[in-house]
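Annex B, item 7. Sequence and structure tokens for protein A, then protein B.
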Amino acid sequence: MTKKENQLRINKIFSLLKNEYPETETALVHKSPFELLIATILSAQCTDARVNIVTEKLFVKLKTPEDFAKVDLAKLEKMIYSTGFYKHKAKNIIGCCTKLVEEHNSKVPIDFDALVELPGVGRKTASVVLGNAFNIPAVAVDTHVKRITNLLDIANTSDVVKIEFILKELLPKEDWANSTHWFIAHGRKICIARRPKCDECFLNEYCPSAN
């Protein structure tokens, strides 16, 4: 396959994904950029469904960055225990909220570099917040995105930063944030990690890994 033919194949894949999953948004329930930030930190190595169960009660008791910054560490650990890695997450959340209070007037910054300087916030979390809370073009690479872009031979690397920039180069900015949701939706519905439904997949003929 020539470079041009491969580019046409990839463009067709994006077109089909966009058509199949037109209504895309994060599954993390939130009412503000701050709530999305906390929920996304909690979502590391945890399902969105479990995070939503936890945050439904968490955000009733702790509403602001000040609340989280002042909460007792052991108390927060207990509140988020079921999301896994709760000790690490609780420490990061308190550190993150302390920095929001002290350096950002308790506001979530609308700046990628400022976001990734917050404890517990990496490139993926920053991109989720920018793309979903502020509608700023950003590509968040999670496990679904990494796995499926490699299966489709859109990327050929396990480096999530490289995958992020590959997608940014291939996609128009208006599709950056939505592309994350395309791959997540496809990974949950069709391209399931241990039991992919290749026979049902609308990308079958364009996928080198099919069957």
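Protein B:
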Amino acid sequence: MKSPRPPQAGEGGARRFGGRVRARLGAAVTSILLLSSAPATADLVGHSGIVKSVTVSPDGKRVLTAGFDYTLRLWDLATQRQLAELNEHFASANTGRFLPDGHRALSGSDDHTLILWDLDRIQMLRQLKGHGANVAAVAVSPDGRIAASAGWDRSVRLWNLDDGALLRTLDGHAANVNAVAFTPDGKRVISAGYDATIRLWDAGTGDAGPVLKGHNFGVNGIAVSADGTRLLSAGVDETVRLWDLAAEQELRVLPGHEGFVVAVAFSPDGRQALSGGRDGKVRLWDVESGKPIHVMNGHAKAVWAVAFTPDGRVALSAGGDEVVKLWDAQTGKPVNSP
């Protein structure tokens, strides 16, 4: 099989300064159109570039997105209205995550930095510097005190969110690191990258643990189940893979996507999974059987991110078509569809 290669976050598109001006102009025009338009449908429309990340607040009321237009955007989920634009990065905003308190968020960018945000005041609290290349993904510990970041400098870095200090650097990947997550107990950090490996680390000491191998090419995304027993991974090899974290072994392969898979997510109860990738399709899976439940078609370009609401009733997907779509997780149809 020919190795498909996903677009690299730093390739093409706007350059750091001139591109930022163009991105902001486009965002301003989009914001004007949003304010003057009729009530929104179930699509979140406002970004002027690939939407690379989507996440839902712990209370299920707000959505945070990150885009290639250098911005993060905060949305009201019930009305699909944009609440705020967070614009302090100087390159593509690749990832954003709510902290457990729901009042703060963390983002990572191609400008090599992380930013901690106050979502009530809509302002930057702190900038975290240390990576020597793009920051592809971030994760926050369950207690909200520690952050992990995945970088294209082949490192995973752990940060103290109270003061922004770099705690330690985890080296082991032989290529760009694309994804990072904490286990629900906060004791382990899991990372994945273009070296086709998934690596487990001790979050307290930084010691390297087991290495999970199974993907034929790079790993783009990972997700950990709420009970911490299972892991999903999304691969350039066109597969989604399910892993047993206790046994540290692969359970099954979920084939079906045509082209690289970028993103995966578990439902809150761990019984279902979402995936999205190059083919523009969002797939909902039964985790136990590994069989597809729904295939959701709606994006005009690749799907870059997927998520569930905390109640598991709504699935979200973000695409290269600059749109975030909301799906009824039970029917597989767009939210608000007739």
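Comment on protein B: DSSP finds one helix and 28 strands in the chain.
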